[in-house]
């Protein structure tokens, strides 16, 4: 049984129901900064992506403002996501069991989790999302800098900029798709959102979705006081 | 210019040599491109650099600076050898057939009469043989060995294509191609125009450069015809006007002369100015000299100029030297012999050679007055600008008074262009601050000086106290009033000499033109050649009717062209001895059996018979001069002399350094370098993005060409380890400059007398005032020597050395 | 005064009629009421035109200066634009890079505005009034002329010259300025009189 | 005498003139659609005859003065180009190339006036995301409307000629407008009027093509057998055309593209990518909705909680 899927802050609060700490305050703040940045980036970026969405620049005060804010938000996103990455990259390393998990894709979609191998802190789809986001954000920041003419015009040639802007839009589309999956998954798997709001999940949620993680925590006696409140 | 800018459209071949019209006169150069586009004209450029003119040429030939005479005499030799001469023209309209006095000779680079001690000639043998009838002897068969034709033929025989290559560095095949193209214009129906500028004048033998081309043009029959001529592209907007009005040491307006000491009285002065015709029936228009002179004196001193006092002849100064030209005067200043100096719109600190000497000279003045619309380096010569003007203000005791003048946009009056058009312009803007018109400033200086003389008396106040000053507002004479003085007016009512009852001009009225001027004091006229510009018909300079019958390019009703609104000088020469145009498609004027008429004002009496009166009416002979008589100081024919600083010795006269009659001051001789010390041949020039030292004050032009640079060949750059765009130091025996290096294919080493010669090009637009980056001008490097006839400094050919360096300290 | 010219007649006169035709072909003869234009408003509208000549080289291109304010009505006039005069036979509206930027010569930051004097040994100019400057000049001239005027040479011939003060005239002043300068300078006996023609 | 036709040479009007270029005359408007124009203006063109150009930079000077720009005073870097490149304050630039003609052995100094080509199929307009920031009039002029520009620089990527530049001052894109304000009142562009040698002419495109053919004939007679007109079809032709002495190798003129077209990358970006992008995002969202509908939410059950409690009890 691998041990890497446990984070420092993870802990079980015995009680009824069992509550499991999943994300501490730092992780949650970090996540939400990232999330808000991403949403703002998507809104401003989509405004440039297609004329029918140009009205979205109004959210930022106008086209000039949207154009000016977008790359700075991108920089924020990059560093913010880097924080998440440093926190969670270990827990997202692929494992042998992931393959077996994925082999039951039908059961994943159908929600027949009982038929799946027990997942660790993250299941393979989450891991995929994590790595895809990481790679796409790197791609976006690199291509974004290449087309950030205000400061980096001289750094690239125009043909490079053209490729960059194409890749940037493709990467953004991909990222948005992944984001949609991510958001959907949170909504679909009820009880998930509180992990990023209150920082904890119920034992049942952990049992259902990340049983191996829960077992491991229990195994290692990562218990904290009785029924812990949110904080 | 003998012709006008708009006439260039009529040409078949444009030769740009000694100039760079595309860069220095772009809008005039338009007419070259028009001739090319519409007539299939060709353009030849001969220049040490492949210029922007060359970039649109049909043929480019390189030449070493300062060797134009060899090239041009080579062309003359080619035309003679290949019988490419417009014979009818040459025989009828030049002095080819005139027989020269016994005793005249040319040997080893010198003509007869040279005095090495005086650096001057006794020119008495440089004359025609005068027959018993008092007229010059001619041999129309051209057989006489002493006739001009045969002397010329012998004189130019040295300048073979091989010799041209040896002196000029122009490859023989390129020279021959140029010669072939040019010689085609000996046909009466093919015309070549010569466009030159300071590339020919700024040499110690500049006048002879121009003469050499003029001779070639005469041999080809290209003077006085449409699309032909000798076209001096003058540098400044009114340099022609200031020359015409004679703002020079030795001139009176209209090319009259200030007396010299030996002309103690008026009679003596006039005795050498009778201008008797040298051939029968000739006009010799200068016979009217006295009319023009007396009318000038009348306009100056009015009632104080009377027949009894020889029209105030003694009010004029008399010269003890040929001229107090600027080189002489700065030499005097340097010697501490000058106390005060005025610079009116002139920037000598950057315009005169050997800047170190200029700075020292200005520092020895007691006072300096500058009048300019802009900050000039001259008015701040005492101010320290680090390396760019390394002086100590505390040690300079010159008082400097800087007066703000208006610029063109705030000023009204006429400017004379290269084509002699007097174009009136109007003011459209208000002057900044307290800036004043030059006319106001000059009037104030006069009025205050006059008041002091009235009050205190003093040295010979008469010419000041009697100066005509009857202007409506004595504090600021109006441009119209001044223009009317130049046109001239009747002091007394003028009657027709042929019919004394007939009034020609009422007293006080403007004269119609100079034909009515008198030598008895009844007319006043400031500048006879301008007469007609502002007569009773009004201000003819303000005319703006641009109709041009038959598209000849004459535009006869646009402004006024001196003399008499004539657009092409010597236009009588456009027709043959019967008065028919040499080229019917380019008719200018023609003889209809009783009179001359056509598109231009005939440059001859309208009833002068074509087979009798020669076209060159200002010459006593009535013909043009291939042989200049004694009018040029170096000799009646041009000779190739090297610049004072030359990379090789004179091939045709190895013992002679420089021009043997150019004036040199003893203090400057030590500062002439040899090619051993300073191996590279430098030349200076303008760039199209700038106008002299003015436009560096202008944000737009400063951005178009921001920083001082020098141009060198890739070969020299490699030899010296100079990188493209890096800093170099260029120094001569007189000073140094630092500049960016433009390494270019457009300058290539030339092989002269077997030796490679590297050219260093130094443009002239930077100083330490204004908007552009600080820099230097080539005058930090150039030698203090001028042309033998007119003292134009030798800016175009001198020696320098060059090496990589670091950027100047920023100030 | 300078606009009573034939300039609108130039198209006919100089055979550039095609230009007129060309313009017609753009549809400019239609003068229907237009919607708000997207293009920049034409900046010369309601300016004053004055004919002048480029002060640089001797091609002497015709120029038209556009100003706010009319000098002829005694108003202060500010030049806002300068362009080639299309009616001029030589330049036909064209201008070189210097001429095209003439406005910035007129408005250069280094235009002089006030008389200044730099005292001997000083490192700066000081502003003075015109009267102070001109009286000073007249005094300097008078004193030097009286001290150094040469009335006769050794042979007793009147020569009436003054060699210790020189006058260097310009190259771009008008004929009228040149002539007045000539009068004033010549009347004093100054012989060191020269101009830019020599260089 | 004048070759005809050429630049409209009459002096500009000073009395109020009606602008002839209105929104009604737009044929394209960036990031928007326009109704078909009520009238078709005659297509115009600027013809730059490189063989007549003397590189004097009068066009640059006139352009600065007319457009009230403020180019910087830079340095000399060993070349004649100044400013060193097009800038938001320099819409046109003389580019100089010293070229040794291998056939003749002669040096040729090729001087090309660079600036907006006013493509019939403008890449900048195609790339522009801001509605109405770039417009094209039915006479062919492609103009930037600064009020609508957001300064994103997409036009730079869209342009096959590397022309637009973004101002660091107002963060909008600048380029030659073909002096649309002048053309609108019947004047030619400032550069064409100033050009001393009439190397720049302006008129109807048809007339300019005729003028070009007479120039090409002249050049051929002078030995430039490859002289020709540069009116690249890859961008639908341009409303700024060149007469080149060596039309077979336009790239020797400071890199004038031989067969310019809007980059396929740009076409992919502004074309397929949009559809694919919307499709992908839509699919992702739709998949979610569908999945949700089919499977319903994935809820934690009471049983799961108990299991967890059991586990905790067991291990605690």
Automatic annotation (TrEMBL), chain A:
Q: Which InterPro entries match?
A: Cyt_b561_bac/Ni-Hgenase, Di-haem_cyt_TM, FDH_cytochrome_b556_subunit, Formate_DH_gsu
Instruction: Give the source's domain of life in one word.
Output: Bacteria
Q: Secretion signal: which residues?
A: none
Entries under SUPFAM superfamilies matching the protein: Transmembrane di-heme cytochromes
Q: Localized where? A: Cell membrane
The cofactor(s) it depends on are: heme
TM stretches of this protein: 32-49, 69-89, 130-153, 165-189
Q: Which UniProt keywords apply?
A: Cell membrane, Electron transport, Heme, Iron, Membrane, Metal-binding, Transmembrane, Transmembrane helix, Transport
Span of domain Cytochrome b561 bacterial/Ni-hydrogenase: 22-199
| Molecular function GO terms recorded | electron transfer activity; formate dehydrogenase (NAD+) activity; formate dehydrogenase (quinone) activity; metal ion binding
Q: Which GO terms describe its biological process?
A: anaerobic respiration; formate oxidation; respiratory electron transport chain
Instruction: Return the GO cellular component terms, semicolon-separated.
Output: formate dehydrogenase complex; plasma membrane
Its record classes its membrane topology as: Multi-pass membrane protein
- Similarity comment: Belongs to the formate dehydrogenase gamma subunit family.
NCBIfam families hit by this protein: formate-DH-gamm (TIGR01583)
Protein name per Swiss-Prot or TrEMBL: Formate dehydrogenase subunit gamma
Q: Which organism is it from?
A: Microvirga subterranea
TrEMBL record, chain B:
List each coiled-coil range. Answer: none
Alphabetically, the GO molecular function entries are: 4 iron, 4 sulfur cluster binding; electron transfer activity; formate dehydrogenase (cytochrome-c-553) activity; formate dehydrogenase (NAD+) activity; molybdenum ion binding; molybdopterin cofactor binding
What range(s) does the Molybdopterin oxidoreductase domain occupy? 1-376
Name what cofactor the protein needs: [4Fe-4S] cluster
Query: What Pfam families does the database record attribute to this sequence?
Result: Molybdopterin (PF00384), Molydop_binding (PF01568)
Q: At the top level of its lineage, which domain of life is listed?
A: Bacteria
Localization in the cell: Periplasm
Q: Identify the main location.
A: periplasm
Protein family:
Belongs to the prokaryotic molybdopterin-containing oxidoreductase family.
Task: Return the protein name.
Answer: Formate dehydrogenase (Quinone-dependent) catalytic subunit
The species is Microvirga subterranea
Specify the taxonomic lineage.
Bacteria, Pseudomonadati, Pseudomonadota, Alphaproteobacteria, Hyphomicrobiales
UniProtKB/TrEMBL annotation, chain C:
Q: Which cofactor does it need?
A: [4Fe-4S] cluster; Mo-bis(molybdopterin guanine dinucleotide)
- Keywords linked to the UniProt accession: 4Fe-4S, Iron, Iron-sulfur, Metal-binding, Molybdenum, Oxidoreductase
Q: Does the keyword Iron apply?
A: yes
Superkingdom of this entry's organism? Bacteria
Query: What cellular component GO annotations does this protein have?
Result: cell envelope
Q: Where would you say this protein principally sits, based on its record?
A: other
Q: Determine if Oxidoreductase is one of this entry's keywords.
A: yes
Molecular-function annotations in GO = 4 iron, 4 sulfur cluster binding; electron transfer activity; molybdenum ion binding; oxidoreductase activity
The subcellular location is:
Cell envelope
Look up the record and give one Gene Ontology term from the biological process aspect: anaerobic respiration
Query: What family does this belong to?
Result: Belongs to the prokaryotic molybdopterin-containing oxidoreductase family.
Q: What is this protein called?
A: Formate dehydrogenase (Quinone-dependent) catalytic subunit
Automatic annotation (TrEMBL), chain D:
Task: Give the span(s) annotated as Disordered.
Answer: 1-37
- Can you quote the record's cofactor note? Binds 4 [4Fe-4S] clusters per subunit.
Residue sites binding [4Fe-4S] cluster 4 per the record = 128, 149, 152, 155
Which cell locations does it reside in?
Cell membrane
GO terms for MF: 4 iron, 4 sulfur cluster binding; metal ion binding
Binding residues for [4Fe-4S] cluster 3: 116, 119, 124, 159
The entry's [4Fe-4S] cluster 2-binding residues are: 63, 176, 179, 191
Pfam families found in the cross-reference section: Fer4_11, Form-deh_trans
Give yes or no: UniProt keyword Metal-binding: yes
**Domain of life per record:** Bacteria
Cofactor(s) required, per the database record: [4Fe-4S] cluster
In this chain, [4Fe-4S] cluster 1 is annotated as bound at 53, 56, 59, 195
Domain 4Fe-4S ferredoxin-type stretches: 44-63, 107-139, 140-169
Q: Name one GO biological process term.
A: cellular respiration
Q: Which Gene3D superfamilies match?
A: 3.30.70.20, Single helix bin (1.20.5.480)
Protein keywords: 4Fe-4S, Cell membrane, Electron transport, Iron, Iron-sulfur, Membrane, Metal-binding, Repeat, Transmembrane, Transport
- Polar residues bias (residue ranges): 1-21
Q: Does the keyword 4Fe-4S apply?
A: yes
User: Which cellular components does GO assign to this protein?
Assistant: plasma membrane
The record's annotation in NCBIfam families points to: FDH-beta
- Its name, as the record gives it, is Formate dehydrogenase (Quinone-dependent) iron-sulfur subunit
